[in-house]
Amino acid sequence: MSPSSFPLPRGTRIPDSGRQLDLAQQLWVDPEQPAEDGAVMLARLDADAAPATLNLAEGRAATLFPGDLVVVVTARYRAPLAVSCDLPLCGMGAALVCPDGIAGQPLPDSLRVPSLSLLGRVVDSSDRAVRPATLKLASGSQRPVLTLCVLSVARGARAAALTHALLRGFVSLGTRVGAARPFGMLNASERWRQLDAGAVAAFDPVDLQRWCTDGVPPSLLWHDCDEQLAELAALNCDVGLLRLPGGMASNAIYQMLNAPPPTLPFDGLIIAAADAMAAVEACHRLANLSAPVIAIGGAISQSPLAMREATLATGLPVLSNNALAQTSELQRLVSEGLQAPSSIPRAPLALAA
Amino acid sequence: MNTAIESFPLPADFARARQAFATRRVPSAAMKGLLPGPLRPAVGDLVLARVEKIGQHKQSELVNGRKATLHPGDLVILAYGNRYAPDQFEAFVPLDLGPCRMIAGGGLAGRDVARHASMAEPTAIRPLGLLCDGQGGRLNLRDYALPAAPQAPLPPVVVVCGSSMNAGKTHSAAMIIRGLCAQGYRVGACKVTGTGSGNDLWKMHDAGALRVLDFVDAGWPSTYLTPLPVLERIYTDLIAHTAIDMNVVVVEIADGLGQAETAHLLRCDALRQTATALVYAAPDPMAAAAGERWLVEAGLPLVALSGLVTARAEDSEETRALVKTPVLSAGQLALGDAMRRCIDPALRAVA
């Protein structure tokens, strides 16, 4: 133990990014250990910083005032529609770039985000840096009986809302359903909405401690998908909803689709698109992968005319979130759109009805 | 269409009626009476209506471009027309003069059959009758269209189309106009399809276009469901009129490639024989890639991708990874270099 180490102060705020921390054990703070990618750090909101919102691990959005102590994860974090960050530069200055508890050097510098002082790395009683627990995969080959993938064609296609609607539909059908989102921006509220809608479990990047997909080989990203789906299977989920965020042109998805695994880890694919032409292009590209696209949804479903254009061009149903949340529509989609893999030992009772 | 039936006098407060932009070619002096009977309105017929309930469109764009705030009880002069607007409404000309809606702020009357989830109900109106001339003949936009186009060699024509409504077509067109004006060209602009509205025309005018026309000038309040030969004639007439004394014409085509009239126009001989360069606007990388594939397969002279997709650096980079066509931001279009390189050879050929 470093002589300057001190116990993690009581009352320190734990954000969503630290929700996997084992708080039952005595935790310490070592000021001599530097920040690095994925490091759990104690920080204090600077005196001249404006009050900031922090999404606590238990789900409440708390207000963080200057001087408040908070646990953050320092990371290279990429958020195309929000503030991204790199690791903190020399010294212990950083900024809270995400209300879910990510800190770093904001990109670009000019963005105004709450500034923090990093006070040291959170360690255990043996002075080992603690890392939030990640999922432990017993067997990578398992996945829920039925797995649907929601693929975002472009940012802003409202894939999260589409996933939520599917979730509500499957819950209404009486199935045990879970959601997986192995990478992408942190979004605690999305996870809580899924749990509130009845998901048995909802996994997101926090569960894999994957803050940035830049440079991550596609095989590893596919593996992350397998890992979260396997965890859903271990929780006896009949249905798994795998959401691949960021858009088909984003580096991560583009690489993944160019290097697909021998067997795609889902039975059917629903694309979330914002407009008809994007949906057409997505179907064209996915057809080359023999990906089983069964429907189109997302923001496009807000426009009856855009829905008509997409259906005419692709032959696929374009379904609104309301339709997907209805059991009859969902049953029809699953029964007509999917060829259930023969390896599936059983069908969810409600779906078989 | 001039049906000579007995007309009624205009209401006492007619002078206060708000004449909408889409009816601009019809002088108010030509409006002599009302035909209130059991008539079936036609596309382009002018209607005098009273606003009953304010809905989505809280303003009506006047002939001079000002957007006048509407109140229940206001009199408005609109044109019956069909509307295709994926981000707003789909609407048709009704079968009678019963209550209907103002389906576009530019001044169209119709009955909506579908609307985008973000839209409120359209503003409700009660038609008082079709406007007629002194002989009781209906006033229709077609009777006030530009005369037949003069036959003359055309200057280079830059066509701007897009993946959908709100893809950034008009902004791209305006930036192209700015760029070409900065390069010393005399630029004319026209919008050949869409729904009558001043928004896009004023943007092109403000960007420096010396003459700006649209399908209203060809006699149509909108082009949805317009017969395809008519659509081609609108295109031909408008670019011919726009081209007078200009050395480049910028043409905007509304909506997206999935819209029937847009798709037809882009494939028709009239356009293929006149388009020197084509710029495609898209809101996201995949829509950009789809458009490139479509336009290249159609054999059109696609020279640049632009639009909303270039507003964010990440989207631009992702698009460049997907396509072969240059991806140009609005700022790059406004420099004019890229367009000048495309049109100069054609300009020399005309000379």
In brief, what are we looking at here?
The complex is a heterodimer of chains A (353) and B (351). Chain A is an alpha/beta fold and 353 residues long.
What distinguishing features does this structure have?
heterodimer; A: 353 residues; alpha/beta; 6-stranded parallel β-sheet; 5-stranded mixed β-barrel; 26% helix; elongated; disordered C terminus; B: alpha/beta; 5-stranded mixed barrel; 26% strand
Describe the structure.
The complex is a heterodimer of chains A (353) and B (351). Chain A is an alpha/beta fold and 353 residues long. Chain A has nine helices and 16 strands. In chain A, the strands form three sheets. Chain A has a six-stranded parallel β-sheet with strand order 13-12-14-11-15-16, sandwiched between helices. The radius of gyration of chain A is 21 Å and the shape is elongated. The C terminus of chain A is likely disordered. Chain B is an alpha/beta fold and 351 residues long. Helices cover 27% and strands 26% of the residues of chain B. In chain B, strands 15-14-16-13-17-18 form a six-stranded parallel β-sheet, with helices on both faces. In chain B, strand 17, helix 6 and strand 18 form a beta-alpha-beta unit. In chain B, helix 1 runs parallel beside helix 2 and helix 6 runs parallel beside helix 7. Chain B is globular. Classes of the chains: A alpha/beta (353), B alpha/beta (351). The interface between A and B is medium-sized, with 31 and 35 residues.
